[in-house]
Design goal:
The protein is mostly helical. The chain has a single domain (about 5-100), classed as DksA, coiled-coil domain (Four Helix Bundle (Hemerythrin (Met), subunit A), Up-down Bundle). Helix content is about 60%, strand content about 0%. The longest helix is centred in the middle third of the chain and has 33 residues, at about 45-75. The two termini are about 25 Å apart.
Amino acid sequence: MSHLSEQDLTLIRGRLTKKISRTMSKIVQMEDMTQPISPENSIGRISRMDAINNKSVMEAALRNARKELDAMKNALAHLADDDFGLCKRCKEKIPMQRLVLMPGSAYCVNCA
């Protein structure tokens, strides 16, 4: 039996669902911003270099968002497991505040 109450699980489920939805929307926007930059004559060399740099930054953010989305989907799928809310490394309880703020977290603060 999980060490979290039904009320806690409901709260975490709601947070996960909202964060998954927001992250999926964010990913769609980021994908649009990481499209190849066409070599237009209308922008200067420096502006083109800025656009390429911004694209690289956005690609890194997109990778992080996808990783976060996977973690949240995994947490949602395992919410009913007996060991949900226990740190995967030290097996101690993850504080409820951490689970509410970062519902995809699988580690306590010390192990993260």
